[in-house]
Amino acid sequence: MKSILLLSLPLALAKSSQKPIVESETGGWALPRGANPALIDKFRPDAQNQFKCLSSPYTIPYALVNDDYCDCPDGTDEPGTAACSYLNHTVNPLPGFYCENKGHTPTYIPFSRVNDGICDYEVCCDGSDEWMGVGDVTCENRCESIGKEARKAAAEARRLYEQGVRAYRSLVAKSVLLKKEEEDKIIMLEGEIVRMKGLVEDRKRELKEAEEEQKSRMAQPGAGKGKHGQLLDFSRERYREMKEKLQRLKDDREALQTQLEQTEKILETFKEEYNPNFNDEGVKRAVKAWEDYLASKAAPASDALDFSVDVQSLLYDEPNWDEWEPEETILDDMYAIEALFPPFVRSWVHEQLSSLHDWLIESGVLAHRKTSPSSSSTSPKVQKATDALAKAESDLSGKESELTRVRDDLSKDYGTDNVFRALKDVCTEAQSGEYTYSFCHLGRATQKNRDGGHTHLGDWTGFEYRLDDEIEQEVLVVKFESGAHCWNGPARSAYVYLRCSAEEKVLSVAETEKCVYKYVATSPAVCGGSDGEADVPDSQEETWQT
Ligand code: MAN
């Protein structure tokens, strides 16, 4: 995560200061009031006791420095008064009056606030900016207590930050595992899909066979076939069953082979990636068992290829059963006569043929009442095969959708180091005004009113960086968009500005414009630096620590 600390240049310069200069160290001359000791050489008088303006080509008598009158065009002769405060920073290179703040952090206060009769302790805790006593004001030096409090607050902030960094690392570790689980799921699903596709093919074949069987039953009279015909039917049925079983065995064998290859791949990766330094006995035993398995694994049989060719030909070479048919079918031809008649008499012809069909059964020519070819009724076997195919197809499509979902999930942006993956569905909420606001990571933001009504503020759409005005830092913002429509306005949306802390917490929520909600929240997810390392804030200036 990127975290830009907007330190102003003057403050940076203030922090680079050294110990205060005293007159004895400079041979009778003292650094002018309000000047930074880092600039001692710039402020030293020359041999003629003159001062050279810092950024304009003028020299003035040294006695005019800090005489409360602006002599240099760039105002640098007045580092300790407000005399040149009307000049802006493009003219005057000095950032302001330098407050030494011994016991706390040195800093600059704008020239306009020097000797204005107000003690500006939040900037100049030593009160040195009010040295003239304007309006009889006396500003005591409070740097010791203010510095102590500031150091305490900074230490606490740092402690929380470091806790956040540790929490960030655990989140990243969890995200790595979750991602790995998803990747393994893809391998498993791919294997299952291969197996299920085979199953769908089986079911299709079974349905086709059941339909053909039904068709042949409908078309062929059962009686009058004789023993030869019955033997042929029996052989054909047995042949079909054996072929079906052989096909199933072949598919199962291929699916198992695929699964075995995937399992071996997982174990191979496991062996390559495990850390032998962790000394985990269970893991070591597993690795050893895997190595033993590899050493004892039998090579594939040399005739494996012949075997599959044989199976293939058994499956696809079908005897020409028609050659062995004992007699012509009669029902097909009989009912085909219907088509020769004009449409308006066809149903009458059909009734006559049906009566003839009944008479053939009654007189023993046909054994049973068979369904005529024009009938659309489905046999239980065909129905069963249809249902089995529908189930296999729906199972397959379920697995395919699951695979698409997992693949989509893996391609989503879950932030640096995928850290937000570990926070999926972690929710936090806070009361603000008349509402309770909540948001769930990678989920939804919601506004709840006191009557228990929920308003949808948006669904997670991703991240972007924005400036958090309050802390003057660019922070990661989680976006929730396309929420419930706002009356006379846009669809609601919520933006969660995250700050680093070990705890998931909503600090504040404001409706910054109609139906646009700004959350400020803390999360360990933003405690990683841009290079994955912790972006720990600067500790308090060490210079004056007691
Ligand atoms: C509800 C709330 C408010 C929103 C108004 C807009 O009262 O969701 O936050 O401003 O609707 O009509």
TrEMBL record:
PROSITE patterns on file: MRH
- GO cellular component assignments: glucosidase II complex
The residue ranges flagged as biased composition, category Basic and acidic residues, are 206-216, 390-402
Task: Tell me the ranges covered by the MRH domain, including all copies.
Answer: 408-529
InterPro entries of this UniProt entry? Gtb1-like, LDL_receptor-like_sf, Man6P_isomerase_rcpt-bd_dom_sf, MRH_dom, PRKCSH, PRKCSH_N
Question: Is Zinc one of the keywords UniProt gives this record?
Answer: no
**Keyword list, A-Z:** Disulfide bond, Endoplasmic reticulum, Signal
- Signal sequence bounds: 1-16
* UniProt record, GO biological process: N-glycan processing
Residue ranges of region Disordered? 206-230, 370-402
Residue spans with biased composition (Low complexity)? 372-381
What protein is this chain from? Glucosidase 2 subunit beta
Species of origin: Drechslerella dactyloides
